[in-house]
Structures are given as structure tokens and as C-alpha cells.
Amino acid sequence: YMLLSKDLKFDFSSRPISQLLKDELTAIKNDKPYKMLDLGCGDGIMIYDLQRLQLLKKNIKLTAVDILFENINLAKKRKLKAQFLVADAENLSFKRNSFDFIYSWMVLEHVSSPEKMTQEIVRILKKNARCYIATVIRKKWAFYLYRKNGHFTLDPTHVHEFSSQKELHMLLKRNGLIIKSTNIKQCKYSL
To answer: Fewer beta carbons below 10 Å: N end or C end of the chain?
Structure first.
């Protein structure tokens, strides 16, 4: 996991909800409104798990976005406590300094420009806000089943796979993020 800051957080985990994210959500105080964004919510499975584990406090106003209309419709059918919007992670309509916390689980590798997505995260985070991001770091020794554009890949839907932790760190730092903590774990895909 990687804890970043503007104050931002980054996480790569093989578990749906890492201890890092649990700790972050548990630390939120109940005394004032707290705006949170699920950036790339998919069908809402993370929100479902966060609610099931009672990690979303009553003062949290959760907004969830995904680029696919179909995913947003599936998430809405789950009757989750969030406002759902169709949006592009590289071009968000939110005002500057809108959110106290952003999490994005396994999205950065699916966007055409991780640079633009990172810039958008920084733009919409409040000063001293935190962010949690999970993404893929490709290892040379990993077993790859798919080919895309002449290269082997972990997943054919990945647009970008980071080749090293250093490459990812450089992207995040270049856009003004301060890395607070890192913990990288091997992710196993079932065949």
C-alpha cells in the first residue's frame, strides 16, 4: 500500500478492502460533513463492502463515478447510499477542492492517461485531503495470459501497466502528491 498526500493514499492489494483503507475510514470523525469520492466505482462493489462492514459513517456524503452508464445502472440497483454519476476520471466536472477523501480501486491502469487522472485527483482534493488508489505494477516474472498490441498483459482491458514502483512514484510525485506509505502485495489471478 502506498499512502500519498496532498495528503494522498495509494494502495495495491489483492483484497477488496485493505487494512489501510479500513484504518483511513475508521479515523474519520463524526463531528462535521465529510465528502468522499469513489473514482471508478464500477458496479458499486466497493461501496457495498464498505457499507456491509459499516465503514461509512453517517456524516460521509459519498459520490461515486464510473465512465460506463451500464456500471452506474448496476450500482444504482444495489440501492447503495451514494450519489452515482457517469463521468470520465480524466475530465471530471467537480470544482477544485471538492473532496476530503478519494479512493480509486484498480482504475489507473484502465485510463488512457494516468497523468490526467492523477492531475484531476489533485485538482478536486481539498488541501491536506487524502486519497487511496489501487493499481497494477507489472513484474517481469509474472505469468501473462493475454496479448495486446504485440505485448503480453495481465488483463486485456488494461491500457497501461506500470513497470515498476519507481515509475508509479514518479507519476504521482510529478503531479504534486506526497507518498506517505507504500505496501505492495502480489496479486493472484484465478485461471
So the answer is: C
